[in-house]
Write a structure and sequence with these properties.
182 residues; alpha+beta
Length: 182
């Protein structure tokens, strides 16, 4: 399965994609993207060989896809179960290369991923968690119709400052209303 809109594609990872995914995500010790993607958790670079050993968890998986823009791999989308028996799914996104930030690529990829999840799973809700320091992620969610469901104040500490944890979510009926009005 592959979805494309405005030159941005999301699709399952293939083995041939792994080297580029590693270069973007785990090769460097202090990548720029980590300053925005939960920087309060330490980033551990990984040798290519160690990354490649995890290929069974990355290649052709339902919960981890890559993002391409005009044929160049730029990031990933994924999901995890917060509580599978109640179908509580959380989703995420990372655009690793700063050259692809602020152009709508992430918002488009996140929209495609949200739509894929609602179209292929019996979800009642999907959502994501970010932090108040990542204003782009909050704005992207708002553009896509996600609602702020929780703000847990001053629980993320980074670079000498406390930030809020932000939970954004969307119900299936809200998603269906969006589709009808597009």
């Amino acid at each position: 399965m592959t979805y494309t809109e405005n030159g941005t594609t999301i699709r399952p990872v293939k083995e041939a994609d792994l080297r580029r995914m590693w270069e973007l995500s785990f090769r460097d010790e202090n990548p720029e993207w980590k300053k925005w993607d939960a920087p309060y958790y330490p980033h551990e670079p990984m040798a290519w060989e160690a990354f490649y050993e995890k290929k069974e968890k990355l290649v052709d998986q339902e919960d981890y896809w890559l993002i391409e823009h005009e044929g160049t791999i730029v990031g990933m989308v994924g999901y995890y179960w917060e509580h599978k028996p109640s179908l509580w799914l959380e989703m995420g996104i990372a655009i690793y290369d700063p050259a692809y930030w602020n152009g709508g690529i992430g918002t488009t990829a996140f929209k495609l991923w949200r739509d894929h999840l609602f179209n292929t799973m019996p979800l009642v809700r999907t959502g994501y968690t970010t932090w108040s320091g990542n204003e782009r992620m909050i704005r992207a969610g708002e553009k896509l119709g996600f609602k702020m469901e929780a703000r847990i104040r001053k629980v993320r500490y980074w670079n000498g400052t406390y930030y809020d944890s932000i939970r954004m979510g969307m119900l299936r009926e809200e998603w269906e209303d969006l589709k009808e009005n597009q």
